[in-house]
Amino acid sequence: MTFGEKLKAARIESGLKQSELAKKLNTTGNTISNWENNVSKPDLDTLSYICGILHVTASYFLQATIPEDEVSISELKLVKKYRYITEHSPSGAKTINAVLENEYAIAEQLEKQKDRIEELETSQAAVIDIQPHLEDSTRLIEYHHSASAGTGVFILGSEGVEQLPIPNTPENRKVDYAIKVSGNSMEPDYSDGDIVLVSQKVDLNHGDVGIFIVNNDAYIKEYGETELISWNPDADNIIISEYDNIVCMGKVVGKY
Question: Does residue 49 sit in helix, strand or coil?
Fold first, then answer.
């Protein structure tokens, strides 16, 4: 990208018009237009002001490509939001960390699967060897202890995670992890001790059963419009307020 293209991209990412950037730099919109069209370039002092206004480093403009360890504009925005949440809502930061850990583990597993597929595709002998066993093959998924059908179970990080083998069927390929039910609020369909299979690849609609983290506790509940619903008539629903931190960790798609 040229200097002008980088400047335009950073300005748009920051939500500024040419005229607004010009006002902050005490210059004209025509000058900004000339810079973005590579007709001219700002001096180094002005460039330092631009970096401060658009929240980018000088290397963003001066290097031909952005190094892998250089933070992009959109990433900087995420960092600012995360710092704000950490300062004002520590429980929210814990929830974000939990989601990141889970998604990172999923990404790692997908990358390993991709590498294995590429390895098999380049090895005819390996492909021939595994074909007779496809019907009996299994895959490993993460197994967590546990989701509450009652008062809530703490579920953050990777503590207590095991590997669980499931048949490698087309239906099970959408399953991302398994989790054990604790409590009886979702009876008769989901009882204490049941292991449910959860997918993060399918949409969760109102009326579906999912795994939810509410203020750092995990629950298996039906997704309602204003509350998380228990199926056992003797159990209470979870009313969601604007002050609660809630994250959906996937849709329940079956039992183990």
Answer: helix
59 and 101 assigned to the same domain: no
Residue 187 shares a structural domain with residue 175: yes
E strands in the chain: 138-148, 153-154, 162-167, 177-182, 195-199, 209-214, 217-223, 227-229, 238-239, 246-255
Q: Do 101 and 221 share a domain, yes or no?
A: yes
Which amino acid does the sequence have at 255?
K
Task: State yes or no: pLDDT of 204 exceeds 70.
Answer: yes
Decide: 35 and 4 in contact? Cβ < 8 Å. yes
99 has a pLDDT exceeding 70: yes
CB-neighbour burial class of residue 105 (10 A; exposed 0-12, middle 13-18, buried 19+): middle
Mark which of 72, 87, 102 sits at the end of a domain.
87
Kind plus residue range of the DSSP H or E element containing 30: helix 29-36
Domain that holds residue 46: 3-87
- What whole-number distance in Å separates Cα of residue 60 and Cα of residue 77? 15
| Domain total in the chain | 2
Helix/strand/coil for 148:
strand
pTM over 0.85: no
> pLDDT at position 8, please?
92
Mean of the per-residue pLDDT values for the chain?
A: 79
Domain boundary among 68, 87, 106: 87
CATH number at residue 176: 2.10.109.10
Using CA atoms, how far apart are residues 132 and 147, in angstroms rounded to an integer?
Answer: 38
Percent of the chain whose predicted confidence (pLDDT) is above 90: 11
CB 104: neighbour CB atoms within 10 A? Answer: 11
